[in-house]
Structure formats: structure tokens, C-alpha cells
């Protein structure tokens, strides 16, 4: 569907959520309802997710417990990332944080189990979400000593990330022309994420997907972000370093992104897909209701 040029990502997102969130709770569901927000790096998904969180807090915060996290918050500690890099020393995609395989999946599973099965822990009133500081160790990053304590039960849990919804391919079944070299390890690790999150039958979710008419827009978006960072703090990556940084992610986009967008199944209940151009302006919208 063609979009109203005067409306922004947040406008379409809140219209979608203001329709489907009340429907979920009006049918007697107690939650937790997950909201997955996915989009390429630099597309504005993190900023939009924060705005969405603020909107939901304003609308439901008095009666619902709403929490927000990024998949980035679950990166391995710096020490554990070094161990992973050494274990896969020939895989350039796992040298440093970013791709599937560089997150603390045990911690993610533990927290999700607590949120989903809150009724099994009646004496537990809170759970602590991790926070990650990308500036530590000269930009290599590390987990913050203190996390974010949220109260239980959680009614709405927002999780954003660039590869949320990417489904691993099956060798010998799917088209695996791009599943070669370093991507074999990444693809194998992606199964853990999909099984735990967007393919998890225990999780009921809504999905918001930011897609683009040209995945190479990621290079320009990341350059803009880095230039803004340099203007604020006086340091950051060079243009060449930014380009090399994005290069590590391109094999995943080439292997998963188009199929992910076509499936429109990030949310188990409904998915909103917003097409955005290089200026991050919305040029198309689609909504698919699963149930």
C-alpha cells in the first residue's frame, strides 16, 4: 500500500500498535506480549523503538508493565568475546561483536524464561536486564556492571535488533549458494535465536519491520551516524573503517534479508512492514495479521 507522505515511521507504528495491543488484552490475555522491531543498521529502528516505548508508557504505563531492550544489550562480555574470537580465529565474521553467535544466549534464555513463566516464580518481583557499553575497550565494548531492573510481571516487552526475524537456511533444502565460508558458522548459531524468539511457540508477538529499497543504504546511514558521533565527542571511525564495519554484515543481509521481508512473519500475531528510502522516509506499508 502506498503511504501518506506526511506520516513518519512512528505514526504508522503507533497506529498499528494502537489497533493490535488493545485487541490482545481485550480478549482476556494476560501477557506478556512481545514487540519485535527489526531493521538494518542505521535505518532508525533504535530511535523508533525508544519513541514507541515512550508512546506505550504514556498510553498504558499506568496499568501495564512495559519494558524495552536491544538485542545488543545481550552481547557477550568482553572477556567471553575474546574467547569466542580465539575459538573461531579463522572466521572474520565472529571477530568482535555484532553477528549471531556474539550474544550471551544463556542469559537471554534465562531472562526470557523468567518473563514468560512469571507465574512459576511468585516470589520474584523483578528481573535485571543487562546493559552494554560499546565505548569500552577502545570501542570493542563490554557489559555494564549494573543492569536495568524491571518489575514483574511484564505485560509488554519490546526487543529491537537488526537481524530479528532472520531465519537460518537448511543445507540441502534451501537455496544455499550464499551459505559458504564464514556464514556457515553464523547460520548454525542463528538457529538458537530463531527458536528462542520469533519462532518460539510460547511467545505471542507483534512485529514491526523496517525495510529499504536498497540494502546498500546501510553504508550511507552508518556514515551519517558516525559523523554525528564525531561532531559530539570528537572521535569515531573513519569513512574507510565504517565501510569495513558494514562489510561484515552484508553476507547476512544477502542471505536472509529479502526472504525475511517477503515472509512478513516477524510477529506471531501481526506484522507491520514499512518501506523506507535513503532519507528514511516511508514509501510503502503492509500489514499482515496472522491470527
Overall description:
This protein is α/β, with parallel strands linked by helices. It has a single domain (9-275), classed as Rossmann fold. The protein has eight helices and ten strands. The protein has helices at residues 9-26, 45-60, 78-87, 105-116, 183-196, 217-233, 239-247, 250-263, and strands at 33-38, 66-70, 126-129, 132-133, 142-143, 148-151, 156-161, 204-212, 270-276, 282-289. The strands form three sheets. A six-stranded mixed β-sheet has the order 2-7-1-8-9-10, covered by helices on one side. A two-stranded antiparallel sheet has the order 3-6. It has a two-stranded antiparallel ribbon with strand order 4-5. Strand 4 and strand 5 (142-143) form a beta hairpin. It is globular. 34% of the residues are buried. This is TDA10-like protein. InterPro entries: P-loop_NTPase. It comes from Saccharomyces eubayanus (Yeast).
Proportion of strand residues: 15-25%
Distance between the termini: 21 Å
Number of strands: 10
Name of the CATH class: Alpha Beta
Average the pLDDT over all residues and give the rounded result.
Answer: 91
Determine the number of helices (DSSP H or I, runs of at least 4 residues): 8
Return the domain count: 1
Structural class: alpha/beta
Amino acid at each position: 500500500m502506498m503511504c501518506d507522505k506526511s506520516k513518519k515511521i512512528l505514526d504508522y507504528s503507533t497506529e498499528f500498535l494502537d489497533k493490535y495491543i488493545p485487541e490482545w488484552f481485550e480478549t482476556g490475555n494476560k501477557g506478556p506480549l512481545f514487540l519485535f522491531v527489526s531493521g538494518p543498521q542505521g535505518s532508525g529502528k533504535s530511535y523508533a523503538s525508544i519513541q514507541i516505548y515512550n508512546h506505550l508508557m504514556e498510553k498504558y504505563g499506568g496499568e501495564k508493565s512495559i519494558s524495552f531492550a536491544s538485542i545488543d544489550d545481550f552481547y557477550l562480555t568482553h572477556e567471553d568475546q575474546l574467547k569466542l574470537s580465539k575459538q573461531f580465529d579463522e572466521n572474520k565474521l565472529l571477530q568482535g561483536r555484532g553477528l549471531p553467535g556474539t550474544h550471551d544466549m544463556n542469559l537471554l534464555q534465562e531472562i526470557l524464561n523468567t518473563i514468560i513463566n512469571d507465574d512459576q516464580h511468585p516470589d520474584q518481583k523483578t528481573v535485571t536486564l543487562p546493559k552494554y557499553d560499546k565505548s569500552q575497550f577502545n570501542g570493542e565494548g563490554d557489559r555494564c556492571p549494573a543492569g536495568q531492573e524491571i518489575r514483574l510481571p511484564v505485560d509488554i516487552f519490546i526487543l529491537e535488533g537488526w537481524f530479528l526475524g532472520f531465519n537460518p537456511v537448511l543445507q540441502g533444502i534451501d537455496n544455499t549458494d550464499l551459505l559458504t565460508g564464514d556464514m556457515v558458522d553464523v547460520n548454525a548459531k542463528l538457529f538458537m535465536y530463531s527458536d528462542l524468539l520469533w519462532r518460539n511457540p510460547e511467545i505471542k508477538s507483534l512485529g514491526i519491520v523496517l525495510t529499504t529499497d536498497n540494502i546498500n543504504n546501510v553504508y550511507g546511514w552508518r556514515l551519517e551516524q558516525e559523523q554525528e558521533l564525531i561532531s559530539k565527542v570528537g572521535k569515531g571511525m573513519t569513512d574507510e573503517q565504517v565501510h569495513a564495519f558494514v562489510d561484515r554484515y552484508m553476507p547476512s543481509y544477502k542471505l536472509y534479508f529479502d526472504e525475511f521481508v517477503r515472509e512478513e512473519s516477524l510477529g506471531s500475531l501481526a506484522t507491520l512492514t514499512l518501506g523506507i528510502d535513503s532519507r528514511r522516509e516511508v514509501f510503502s506499508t503492509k500489514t499482515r495479521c496472522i491470527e
